[in-house]
Amino acid sequence: MGSSSRKRRAVSRTGRSRSTKELRAKAPAGAPLEKLDYERLAELRYLLRRFLIFSENAAAAADLTAQQHQALLAIKGYPGRDEIAIGALAERLGIRHASAVGLVDRLVAKGLVTRSAGRVDRRQILIRLTPDADTRLAALSVAHRAELRRLGPVLQLLLAGLGTGVITKGRKLVF
After folding, report:
1. Residues 37-60: pLDDT tens digits?
2. Mean pLDDT calculated for residue range 62-84
3. For residue 115, how many other CB atoms are within 10 A of its CB?
4. C-beta of residue 119 within 8 angstroms of C-beta of residue 54
5. Contacts of 114 (CB under 8 A, 6+ apart)
6. Which residues lie across from 84 on neighbouring strands?
7. Which range of residues forms the domain containing residue 131?
8. What is the rounded distance in angstroms from the CA atom of residue 151 to the CA atom of residue 54?
9. Is the whole-model pTM more than 0.90?
């Protein structure tokens, strides 16, 4: 499949995939950006990238790739269950089903996840963390939470400065 026939897709909060062309078409016109807006956007991107580098390094120290760490987190953090279907994992990671299958194969080989057939639909493959994965993920998550707490105040100021109105106190949104 050539690059011209594959359009870059973005997934909305509702899970609906939209092309970047659709996203541009729906972008609000609003007031033109000022120099300070660009500075804030650049700082936000910089801090996000720094966090991603931190995350990649932490995953490597736990003998995981960044994608493997993200997969373990997606499995553990899936709402309401301790297991996830491969299709849901693919959607959570923003990858294709076949790529998720390969990722799960590598995680099984490392002894970090197990596969089982679905209880209702035996064709469905469910993925669950092993105790080793739970231990590694817990250590990584503690470190990530500490880093986010460190970056949180600056991120909140940047978001407020961009007019998002999203400031939180505890778990409550404050506008």
Report:
1. 888 889 999 999 999 999 999 999
2. 95
3. 14
4. no
5. 108, 127, 128, 130
6. 127
7. 36-150
8. 12
9. no
Give residue 14's pLDDT: 46
Hey, what amino acid is at 19?
S
DSSP state, residue 5? T
DSSP 9: E
Q: Which residues partner with 168 through β-bridges?
A: 173
Q: What are phi and psi of 126, to 5 degrees?
A: -105, 140
Assign residue 165 a region: left if phi > 0, alpha if psi is -120 to 50, beta otherwise? left
Q: What CATH number has the domain bearing residue 106? A: 1.10.10.10
Residue 37: in which H helix or E strand, if any? helix 35-61
**Would you say 166 and 157 are in contact if contact means Cβ atoms under 8 Å apart?**
no
The 3-state secondary structure of 76-118 reads HCCCCCCEEEHHHHHHHHCCCHHHHHHHHHHHHHCCCEEEEEC
The token pair that represents 52 in the structure block: 């991603």
Report the domain count for the chain.
1
Residues written for the chain: 175
Residue 112 within a domain: yes
The structure tokens 């995953």 sit at 59
Q: Domain for residue 114, yes or no?
A: yes
Question: Are 32 and 38 spatial neighbours (Cβ–Cβ below 8 Å)?
Answer: no
Structure tokens at 119: 């209880």
Domain membership flag for residue 174? no
